[in-house]
Structures
1.
Amino acid sequence: MNYRRFGRTDWRVSEIGYGMWGLAGWKETDQTEVLNALEKSVELGCNFYDTAWGYGAGASEEILGNLIKRHASKRLYFATKIPPKNFKWPSKANFLLEDCFPASHIIEYTEKSLKNLNVERIDLQQFHVWEDSWAHHDDWKRAIEKLKADGKVKHIGISVNRWEPDNVLNTLKTGLIDTVQVIYNIFDQNPEDNLFPLCRKMDIGVIARVPFDEGTLTGMLTKDTVFPKDDWRATYFVPENLNSSVDHADALRPLIPNGMTMAEMALRFILCNDDVHTIIPGMRKIRNVEANIGTSDGKQLNKALELELKGHRWDRTPTEWSQ
């Protein structure tokens, strides 16, 4: 495993972190397998774990808390997220700050996360959605300043809405945000335009999420793929999105190097970008942990391939199904 400096936090975090959404609240999740996968990740050098209260109403946080306790002798960095008070993902431009993150709610859910994680201080507390129109409101600023002063939170971050990487720029300029989490992959390259340069200038840590475009970039989806009705992907991969996603993935197949999977190529593409400090794929199986962490070996994609993949940028705008 290779490690990168995580912006102004000055942490050295693993290039491949662990996204913990799928570890709680998904019916097909095998908890024994999940625990084994987590243990394998620690063994292989992963030291950054990202969860949220919204992942199983705190269940994922409890799983992470137990992992931290089992490995108390190791420095595992952990991040969680405050759900919006209206419990609507993503936020919308017309949402008010008081409907999503009033100070009392920020403090209340930080306390819940502290209890679930069984820690005295959260390494990185993040807002799970955001609107840049809230940048200059004082309520959220007072809340995070209190949490920091009370020693309950070390750093503050924001998880940016899907396909809206610029919907945080003014907030970052306040100087109060230490990290940003954004969708970045072969298709979603638009954070390179404005977000990454600002993060570089302000020394803000960058977490890349959804590296496989919710599964498209694993190469495993087809136009006949059907998800169970209680799986959120059933409402995301509506025919309009599924058909187009599969077409875009199929266009990549001729570019995959011999001996490499599409998923490996997708991760290695992100690792080519020094503006990204850690990637957080979801991993519920040991084989996924081994494959994903295996890409952090210092071997770069061929430059010509990297440039060709850049030509597969797919600019999208939020829709009713993009969540």
2.
Amino acid sequence: MTRITIPDDFPVVLASSAVWPSLRARAELDYYDTLPSGEDGLIERIRAAQVVLNIRSSSRFTARVFEACPKLHLLSVWGTGTDHIDLPAAERCGVKVTTTPGVSAVSIAEHTLALLFAVVRRIPRMDASVRLGQWERGRFIELRGKTCGVIGYGAIGREFSRLAAGIGMRVRIWTMHPEQYPGVEFTGLDEIYSTCDVISIHLRLSPETRDFVGAEQIALMKPSAILINTARGAIVQEGAMIEALQHGRIAGAGLDVFTAEPLPAGHALTELQNVVLTPHCAGITPEALEAGLAMAVENIWAFVG
């Protein structure tokens, strides 16, 4: 039987999923429902594995990890991000890396829209106020007719563009790879930053996109602009964003991702009334979870034959 190690199922999702019984029946499993203690802990857990099924991006697969695990042939990742994996090192060591593209697109796009509504309607603040017996009134923002800039046009960006258009927003799109989408009209980045009422980030984190939205880009945005990020925290320069939010240079933000996760207690973002925060959970619905885990396991069966 194929020996598969799951080094990081915490919080537990795989062992409680529908695909777990068939996985357990077809493979020899080394299963851990805690996170490994850094690089050495990960090596210790996966040293004997032929296949690793990776659940959490907090497990970092560095060159040293791959070099210390010569039996490893496949790293099957639940999710689409690979910023925690040294892909050139994996290739040098003969390790194939697979992901689960598209399975969370609907869930993340819906969450992006929910964050947008929560920011412009100040829903968390209104809810807290009513629970305290207050009756705070205020002017909100109507989204119909506003312009929404979508940066990144992968599966999630396309789905969110559809939702934004569906509520009557004018959608402007930018992508790194416009040649992949013949017939789609794209807009320049500077125009998106300077003209859009909402700017939503849907890029993959890579060396090319780290700090992609920095102080210079934020300075182009309108004071009334709303920034939404459900991609990766490091794509936006967090300090520049916080300063802009503190001084009213942009109106608000909806964030599911952060430079440091979990977000540290007392972080500056937690003090801002014009920000809505969620704990990197946009893609975690039962539907997306089950579909993603099933695809990650199917990737293993396709590899081992």
3.
Amino acid sequence: MGVFLSELTWQEAKEAFQRTQTVLIPVGSTEQHGPHLPLGADWIEADAIAKAVTERADVITTHVVPVGISEHHMDFPGTLTITREHFRNFMMDICESLIRWGAGRFIFINGHGGNVDALSEIALTLRTKYGALSAILQWYELIPLFNGQPTMQHGGYGEIALVAAAKPSLVKYDKAQLDPQKLVTENIIADLDHFTFKGGVIRTFLRTKDVSLIGSMKEQPADVEEADLKSATPEVGHKLLKSLVDLIVEFLKEFNRVDFGPTG
């Protein structure tokens, strides 16, 4: 039902914007994901989700943005990063271009948590300056558990499955592993963006190497029996992808009904 902006002529683009105001922008990063996943895992996942949604929803989908805010991962070779200011300005330029042609609702399919604060600022600017509505969808927040496994793990079960569904040759199952959460004192567990202390959460922000030597990690406590990462097969990935797309398509129908009226 939807279209991919890069594949349209300008006349076709004009017609598409007359039909729908909703634009999907997949966003990811190029950064380490352990010894078993490619640097492009985040954008590969976001792109696969956006493409599948486009096949079922009346949206205009842009090319994936493959580099994000990843300074905290820069101790691992091959990682690329841009500053928060450059990322924000670049994304705003894209959105303002799209507004010029008729866009009024933005769906950011974000595969990298490091982008979310900047995307939130962009969403506020779009709403305040243009009256446009935005939604930031992070797949591991939409489905926190799949097959009983937590999906918010850097290079974990969910990411392996989605990459395997999109590009199976890029998953090295024989090297799949996750660093456990790091106990830095007798009472403090360290994650990238917080300490856990006696059951409470204290916000911080660390470099990946502070909590993981291999670049893949659990990132959250899990009161579940951990699955063998080799079980995150392409078949599992396709099921997870379908569940995500079903949920996003349903959300889009509701989102397009939202009307807060003009700003100002």
